[in-house]
Amino acid sequence: MTIIDRQAALQRHQDERARIEAILARAMPAEGCGPAIPVAPARGASRSVTPQAMVPDPRDKTGWKAESMGWRGFKAAVALDIFDRLAMNAARRKQPPPFTKGQVSIARLYRDLVERHDAGGMKLASLEGRMTSGSGTGRDFMDAYLAEGDAIRRLRASIGTGVAMQVRRVRPSARGGQGARPILDRHLVDAVCLHGKSLRQVLRDHRWSDDGKHAKALTSALRSCLDRMQGYHG
What we know:
Residues 42-62 are annotated as: Disordered. By secondary structure, the protein is mainly alpha-helical. Among the domains are: 49-78, no CATH class; 112-157. The protein has helices at 3-27, 82-92, 101-132, 136-159, 172-175, 185-194, 199-205, 212-230; strands spanning 46-49, 52-57, 60-68, 76-79, 163-165, 183-184. The strands form 3 sheets. The protein has a two-stranded antiparallel ribbon. It has a two-stranded antiparallel sheet with strand order 2-3. Helix 3 packs antiparallel against helix 4.
């Protein structure tokens, strides 16, 4: 093996080591989490949260209070999502988060409902036999499944059929070319909330140039969608 070959092999080894170390660093539980939470590359980067539950307040026999429920005082790990990353990017620029807590909460509720409902469709098929035989478990699951479906339909009705980015209102040279397609409100919400895409990714997917002006317009459109999902129709 020549010196050049050995140098190339050493560089490949160093590059691979750096890649693995970066994966493991992202997979480490966030600071403050319990030791039982494993290093999980599939989970990706995470943030720490303090689990809380409502418990009776001993000082008020008719009242309740929020109490931290972390095991031995440790926090839980939650995978970072697109809204965490957007807030972190804004913080690095010394700017406020682009979305309010209420907007982020409804976005995550929508994501959780859709993911759980989609997974429930498979379970529903396996319960069909027990439901026809009078199983209470099957009926309870069916009721919950239908309620989730209704909640998702109401949220999607609130999103509406509007257009977040209208092609005919922007010159071809300004939007990035002739191939740009309209970005519907529903497509925008699903791309960001369900698939974790950045606003610039949404623009590129629809053949728009991903400049700051277009990203700002999409941010405004997404805020409006999330407000409607919360019930604000101003």
